[in-house]
Structure formats: structure tokens, C-alpha cells
Design a protein that fits this description.
The complex is a heterodimer. Chain A contains 3 helices and 9 strands. By secondary structure, chain A is mostly beta strands. In chain A, a hairpin with a 5-residue loop joins β5 and β6. Chain A is elongated and about 50 Å long. In chain B, the strands form 6 sheets. Chain B has a 22-stranded antiparallel beta barrel. In chain B, strands 1-6-9-4-5 form a 5-stranded mixed beta sheet. A two-stranded antiparallel sheet of chain B has the order 2-3. Classes of the chains: A mainly beta, B mainly beta.
Chain lengths: 187, 650
């Protein structure tokens, strides 16, 4: 599967002019993780906002996701709940399918910032960790400029005990022509 | 790890299409390497010592991953930096017992315009640089006012993350870099230029290998902080150019002190004021002058639990003049310099240096000689360098032969100052040296080096350039600090179990070779390189074992657009052994030996300019393969780490 994903990324057609359009997306997001993380925390639903633009090849996408991770009942007293702010930057290549459907595999890196609900001093109440992984997004047009989007990501967090997260997003996006001032800024 | 590596490699593998404005291949004298700002940016370098990564033949080690030491195959392996450092033409006097810590130089990596590197002896700035030259040129507005400032952070993987609250999965936080800040403001007028700059670095040395050791010495979590400001004023007057440089730096440092074989907490402060210039005195003759005053202080890290107060201050005053005469293709020059150095705990010295050079240049040839006579109260040293260069059909070949003598006063190593009365580390030294001490069998004497080198550069085919070099060096009577056998495993601060010999009779013969092929194709730029080192003889075999023999690699840069660059570097570094540390343990539950494994190190960088090149963002990943990257037996293992920098140019 990894090989297929890489081939799709490398063989995809050229994109539009860099930064020509701006696709703003809002999604609901679900987080899933395996043991041992899931033995201690139960990730709750979250929300994601992202901006996607044509890049020199393919598209870049930057965004952020916020979600609440509550301690599982068994460890409610032992480990604190935390709120996760996940900021990421990704790159992918979209492929157009019949019916206006677009599918875009990609790669992403990000920082997952965890703010723990404890009485610790502020300086040690949070942890920020590097993540990297793959994602796959699909979208269909629903109205002029509007698309219904769905996607999934597999992301590894490089802590001493590595944690693999799977994110699922469903939402909508709106595409605009990038304002001239912003295009100039990005170039 | 596979996921991240594949993801980043895939993101680098963007297909080629058209033009780019890649920096040109370095034009040159084959013995000189020029590192341009474009190369620095494309490589995503994070701090100034990262420049070593781009220097041909440089072998480095670091204990903490913050202070990097470099060796270019000279007589005292990893003992001291033999090269001479220049910043904007000013010779910088910031060495401490022969060690030159680039981190302490008041130049942030983003403030570098270019760097010239010579690894062979040459005459420069009034002295004969026995171990070559590193000359850093800082950025300056070409006209009007310009400013740049930046902030950078870095982090290594392996933190506990949420598991810090789960006792059975708990681990300690690992190294964190920054936040670092730097800024530079410059103004260029018709007749004058002014520049002010600073850098502020922070580093949290939390690697398992050193954390407990240093926390015990400090009585607190190890956190280093370094501030280094500088001011440069340049004016055109009397038909020539004159430059005033004010440089300084201060740091709370966990200084790795080779004779102790460990870090000690110290406070380092240094400063220098220098003025140099050149004016024509006739159509064929120029008069040059340079004066400088420098002070180096090494003192106690206030509040540290291990109270090793080095109480060491040196002050250096230096003044020199030279005359350079040029008629058509012939150049000749003479210079004289006097240096007076005093120390708070030792007898100072005065050193005089006479220099001279002649050269002749034609369209195909350049050849000449450089010489220096260094004189103190009781010794003299004579150095001579012969050089020649020939160019034909796109190829340039240069040869140098040198016989250099270096007085102990020119190296200022630890053993030299001990002999002159330095009482060293007044307090608590007994705790550190319970069972050992220094054994100085003889005083440092004038050391001698013979060197021969041959370098060539030329175009193999259009777009493909070959660089090659070969050098043989023999050192006699080199000063070397030779550590005794391994320390005993045990708690706390006990250390080297046998005396450290401060030896003035080091001998070594080494050969180094380098080969690189670089080229550009469309928007791609690449380089394959190999550096090799062979020890041919001498009595420093144990010390040379610590220096990796082979270094090879490839760098690839892709610039899809003038404002966007992707870079990748794969480097192989061969294994090495620090015999004095074999085997050992430090009472911190981690047992190491002196063997450092070979490593394949993959780095990837990404750089994006925004706002019409006013704003620059760069992201650098080091050690993507997450191989064991260690440079010293008691040093940190540098895992996969990332650095993010944002820079504003106005």
C-alpha cells in the first residue's frame, strides 16, 4: 500500500499555478489510537480547519485540529485529561475522477501539542511532539465552489514510546481565488 | 521511523521541469573552499558550528550536541582547533587553551554571507595561519539600510509525551534547542558602512548520557545560555578602507575540558576591539595596519554545585603594519606585528612576527612564497610556504609545500600556561581529581610541521565539476593532552583514573584525500563527496583512533522556484574509538565504552521565501534514519530532530 501511495504521489499530473486558489475547509474529526495510549486515554471528537493551495507540484495544506482526550475511567485519578492542538503541514497530489470527485493522497508533518489538565506549573503542563505520516482525502462538489470532503490520516508521534494516531475527518470546503495581495505574499 | 522517512523522501522527490537560479559552482583556487549563503540556506543550517558540515575534510565531535570541535587532520587529533578564525577580515582572539568554539563567535548562521576555508597554512591578516583559515564574511546592505532578524527552535524526538504521567512508561524529556534569537541591522552609505548584530542561544542538555553527571555538577537541570553581540563600522578614507570591529560573547557553559575528560560548569566571557585598514601610499604600494585588544575570561558558573573556579583571564594587545607592492603581475609584501599577552595567574609573553611574501601571476600561472619569523624572548620559529597554481582548459591545479614552526606562545595550550604559573581551578579540584592529576613530562616546545598538498578542480563535462585534493602532513614535537586509562565506574564526580599526560613530544604523519563531484542540471544541484584520512606513523595512534577515517556522502538540492528549495544530504561517517574511555561507566545507570559506531545520517531541509523574499521559513530534519549518532563516548546520542526557523529581512 505504501508503495502504491508513493507511486501515486510521484506520477500525478502537474498542478495549477502555485497559490492560485485557496480552499478553506472545516471538518469534524475523530481520533483513534491503539494501546498503550488507548489504555489510558479516550480521544473525543474534535474539529479541524485547514487551508489548501496549489503548490509547485501538487497541493500544500496547512491546518490545525483540536480535540479533547479524557482519561479512561480506570485511570481517571492517575492520569490527567488533556486538550490536543495538532498543527500540521502536508503535501499531496490530487487526481480528478469522474463526477467531479477528487482524491488526494499526501504526506504530512506536524506538531501535536498537549495541554494537561493538572496543577503543574505552566512551564511543564504541556508537551509538544513531532508527528509525521500519510493522509488520503476525497471530495465531491456539492455547489459552486463548495465541496463535501472526507479524509483519513495515519500519523506517528515520535515520543519515546511511539504512538500511532488515526484521524478521520468529514466536512465541507469552499474554494476561492487567492487574493492578489496574498498570492504576492506567498510568492 | 519508516513512515516519516518515506513521507519526507516522497516529498523531496518532485519532478524536474525548468530553469532555476541556483548558486553558481564555486569559482576558485582549488585549495580554497567557498561556502555561499545560498548553500547555507539550502542546507538549512541551524547554528554557526553547522558550517563544519559543509567544510571539506572537517571531522567533528561534540559531547553535548551544542559545542562542536573540529579537526582537519592536523597534528593533535581533536585536541585543539589549529585554524585561524577571521570575521570580516578581523583575526579573532577567542580561543581558550587552543580550543575555538564557533558557537561563541558573535555571528548567527543567518548573518553569514559567505565563508572561505583554507585547510593548508597560509599568510593571512598579519600572521602565518599554521592550521589553515576559516574566514566568515557577514551580510551587509549593499546600499541603504537593511535589517534581518530571526527566531529558531529545535527539538529531538523521544520525549515522554503524555506518558510522563504513566509511571511504567515514563521517560525523561530529551534535548531541546532554543528558542534562539538573532538580529542584524546594517546601513551602507557612500563612504561608510555600519552594522550591529547579536545572537542569543539556548540549549537544554538533557540527554541520558550526560544529564545526571551535569545535574550533579550544577545542582540544577543543565541549561546553557549564550549571548554574543557585535558592532562593525567601516569607512572609506585617505583613499583606502578602514574597519572597526567590536566583538564579544558570554556564556554559561558546560565546558568539555579534555584533560579532565568531562564537562565542567564555567562562565565564559570574551571581547575584542580591532581596527584594521589599508591605504595606498603610491600607485603601486599599499600600507596596511591592524590593532586589536582582546580579553578572555573563564570563571565559575555562579551557583554551580561543583565549585571549580578556573579564575583565568588573559588580555592580548596586538599591533601590526604591512606594506604591499604590486607591479603588473608581481606582488611582494612585508609585515611586522607585535603581540603582548598577559594573564591573571601566569607569566605573560611578548611575541613578534615578521612576515613576507612574493608572488607572480600570469594568465596561466600563479606561484610564490610566504614566510614568517616568530620571535619571543628565548625562541624563534621560521615558517615557509611555497605555492604554485596552473590553469589550463578549464582545469586548475595548485600545489603547496610548507615547513612551519609554531612556538608554544602561538598555540597557548593548557600545558603552556601551567608551566607559566597557572594554578588552575582553585576550588574543589580534589573532588574531581581524587586519584589523578596532570603529569607534564616536559615543557611545550616549538613544534614543527611539514606539509605538502596538491589540489585540482575542473570541469569533467558541461555542468559537472571535479574537486580533488591530497595532502601529507608530518608533525614533530606537537603538544598533546593524552588522557590516562578509563575512569572507574562509580558515583558522582570521580573521573579519569590515571594522570592526563600533557605531552610535548607528539609525532604524527597523516595523509588526507578528498574527492568531490558536483553538478547542476536544470533546477537540480548535487554533490557526491569522499574524505579519507590515513595515519602513516607517529606516537599518537591512540588519539588518532578517535577521529573517523572515512566520510562520504551525497547532497541534492532542488529549487522548483527561486523562492522554494528542498535539500537532502546523506552522509556516512566511519566508526572511531576513544581508547581512554574504554570501558567506563559514570554512575548514571548508563554504561558506555569508547567505541563509536559508524553511522549513516540523512538530513532533509525545506526553505520557503515569502513576501518577496522578506520572510523566510526553513525546516530542517536531521538524522531521519534515526541511526545512533554519537560523537563522544560520554556524549549525547543525537536522535532524529527538527529545527524550525523564521527570518525577517527588511
Amino acid at each position: 500500500m505504501l508503495r502504491g501511495l508513493c507511486l501515486l504521489l510521484l506520477c500525478a499530473p502537474a498542478a495549477a499555478q502555485p497559490f492560485e486558489t485557496l480552499e478553506i475547509g472545516l471538518s469534524g474529526a475523530g481520533t483513534f489510537a491503539g494501546a498503550p495510549f488507548a489504555d489510558f486515554w479516550d480521544p473525543g471528537p474534535g474539529g479541524e480547519a485547514s487551508v489548501e493551495m496549489p503548490f509547485y507540484l501538487g497541493q500544500i495544506r496547512v491546518g490545525g485540529m483540536v480535540s479533547w482526550h479524557g482519561a479512561v475511567a480506570e485511570f481517571d485519578e492517575a492520569v490527567p485529561d488533556f486538550i490536543a492542538f495538532y498543527t500540521f503541514a502536508g503535501w499531496g497530489v490530487g487526481t480528478a475522477l469522474p463526477g467531479g470527485v477528487r482524491i488526494a493522497p499526501g504526506v504530512r508533518v506536524g506538531i501535536l501539542n498537549m495541554r494537561f489538565d493538572t496543577d503543574d506549573p505552566a512551564a511543564v503542563r504541556s508537551e509538544a511532539e513531532l508527528t509525521a505520516g500519510f493522509d488520503l482525502r476525497a471530495s465531491v462538489p456539492v455547489a459552486a465552489g463548495w465541496r463535501l470532503t472526507a479524509g483519513g490520516s495515519v500519523v506517528r508521534m515520535f515520543t519515546a514510546e511511539q504512538i500511532d494516531f488515526r484521524f478521520v475527518q468529514v466536512g465541507v470546503s469552499r474554494t476561492f481565488r487567492t487574493p492578489d495581495w496574498l498570492r504576492e505574499f506567498l510568492r | 521511523m519508516t513512515l516519516a522517512t518515506l513521507a519526507l523522501l516522497a516529498s523531496l522527490a518532485i519532478a524536474d521541469t525548468t530553469q532555476p537560479a541556483l548558486p553558481p559552482p564555486r569559482p576558485e583556487d582549488p585549495g580554497r573552499q567557498v561556502i555561499t549563503r545560498a548553500e547555507i540556506e539550502a542546507a538549512g543550517l541551524y547554528r554557526l558550528p553547522d558550517l563544519y558540515r559543509l567544510m571539506d575534510g572537517a571531522r567533528t565531535f561534540a559531547v553535548d550536541g551544542f559545542t562542536w570541535r573540529a579537526d582537519f587532520g592536523h597534528g593533535d587529533p581533536f585536541g585543539a582547533e589549529a585554524w585561524t578564525l577571521l570575521v570580516d577580515g578581523e583575526r579573532v582572539e577567542f580561543g581558550l587553551f587552543g580550543e575555538q568554539n564557533l558557537s561563541l563567535v558573535p555571528v548567527a548562521i543567518t548573518q553569514v554571507d559567505s565563508v572561505e576555508v583554507w585547510t593548508e597554512p597560509r599568510l593571512v591578516a598579519g600572521t602565518l595561519a599554521h592550521g589553515g583559515v576559516i574566514h566568515i564574511h557577514t551580510a551587509q546592505a549593499s546600499q541603504g539600510t537593511a535589517a534581518r532578524g530571526g527566531v529558531a527552535i529545535g527539538n529531538e524526538i523521544g520525549d515522554p509525551g503524555p506518558f510522563r504521567y504513566v509511571p511504567e512508561l515514563f521517560s525523561r524529556n530529551v534535548d531541546k534547542f532554543g528558542a534562539d534569537y538573532d538580529a542584524l541591522v546594517s546601513h551602507s552609505g557612500a563612504q561608510s558602512r555600519i552594522q550591529a548584530r547579536f545572537k542569543l542561544l539556548r540549549f537544554y542538555a538533557t540527554d541520558f548520557a550526560s544529564f545526571e553527571r551535569n545535574r550533579e555538577a550544577l545542582g540544577a537541570n543543565p541549561a546553557l545560555r549564550l549571548f554574543a553581540p557585535a558592532l562593525r563600522v567601516e569607512a572609506d578614507a585617505l583613499g583606502g578602507r578602514h574597519a572597526l570591529n567590536v566583538l564579544g560573547g558570554g556564556a554559561n557553559d558546560l565546558w568539555f575540558f579534555q584533560p579532565f575528560g568531562r564537562e565542567i560548569p564555567v562562565r565564559r566571557v570574551w571581547g575584542q576591539v580591532g581596527l584594521h585598514g589599508r591605504v595606498p601610499v603610491s600607485p603601486h604600494m599599499k600600507f596596511g595596519y591592524r590593532v586589536a585588544a582582546a580579553e578572555n575570561q573563564l570563571s565559575e558558573w555562579e551557583g554551580a554545585a561543583l565549585r571549580l573556579d578556573p579564575d583565568w583571564t588573559t588580555r592580548t594587545l596586538r599591533a601590526g603594519i604591512d606594506l604591499n607592492h604590486r607591479i603588473e603581475s608581481q606582488i611582494a609584501g612585508l609585515g611586522v606585528e607585535v603581540q603582548h599577552t598577559t594573564a591573571n595567574q601566569a607569566e605573560g609573553f611578548t611575541l613578534g612576527t615578521l612576515t613576507g611574501h612574493v608572488a607572480r601571476t600570469t594568465s596561466r600561472y600563479r606561484y610564490g612564497a610566504e614566510g614568517a619569523l616568530a620571535i619571543t624572548d628565548d625562541a624563534q620559529a621560521v615558517s615557509l610556504v611555497l605555492h604554485g597554481r596552473r590553469t589550463w582548459d578549464g582545469w586548475t591545479v595548485s600545489a603547496r609545500a610548507a615547513r612551519t614552526q609554531q612556538l608554544p606562545e602561538q598555540a597557548e595550550r593548557f600545558g603552556f600556561w601551567l608551566r607559566r604559573g597557572y594554578r588552575q581551578f582553585a576550588r574543589d579540584i580534589g573532588r574531581l581529581l581524587r586519584r589523578n592529576g596532570f603529569e607534564q613530562r616536559e615543557a611545550p616546545v616549538t613544534s614543527m610541521q611539514y606539509r605538502a598538498s596538491l589540489d585540482a578542480t575542473g570541469q569533467l563535462v558541461p555542468g559537472l565539476v571535479l574537486d580533488a585534493g591530497f595532502s601529507v602532513r608530518r608533525a614533530d614535537d606537537a603538544y598533546a593532552e593524552r588522557q590516562g586509562r578509563a575512569p572507574d565506574p562509580g558515583p558522582g564526580l570521580s573521573y579519569i583514573a590515571e594522570p592526563t599526560f600533557l605531552d610535548a613530544a607528539g609525532k604524527s604523519t597523516t595523509a588526507t584525500g578528498r574527492l568531490a563531484i558536483r553538478g547542476t542540471h536544470g533546477r537540480w544541484r548535487g554533490r557526491l563527496f569522499y574524505d579519507g584520512l590515513r595515519v602513516l606513523g607517529g606516537n599518537l595512534d591512540r588519539e588518532w583512533e578517535a577521529v573517523p577515517r572515512h566520510r562520504a556522502g551525497a547532497t541534492v538540492t532542488l529549487m522548483p522556484d527561486p523562492g522554494f528549495t528542498l535539500g537532502g544530504t546523506l552522509v556516512y561517517r566511519s566508526a572511531s574509538r576513544w581508547l581512554a574511555y574504554e570501558p567506563l561507566g559514570f554512575g548514571n545507570d548508563f554504561l558506555y565504552d569508547g567505541e563509536l559506531p559508524a553511522a549513516w545520517l540523512l538530513d532533509a531541509s525545506l526553505e520557503k521565501w515569502l513576501w518577496q523574499r522578506r520572510l523566510r521559513m526553513s525546516l530542517l530534519f536531521r538524522n531521519l534514519l534515526n541511526h545512533e549518532e554519537r560523537y563522544h563516548p560520554i556524549g549525547a546520542a543525537l536522535d532524529l530532530r527538527f529545527y524550525l526557523r523564521v527570518e525577517l529581512n527588511l
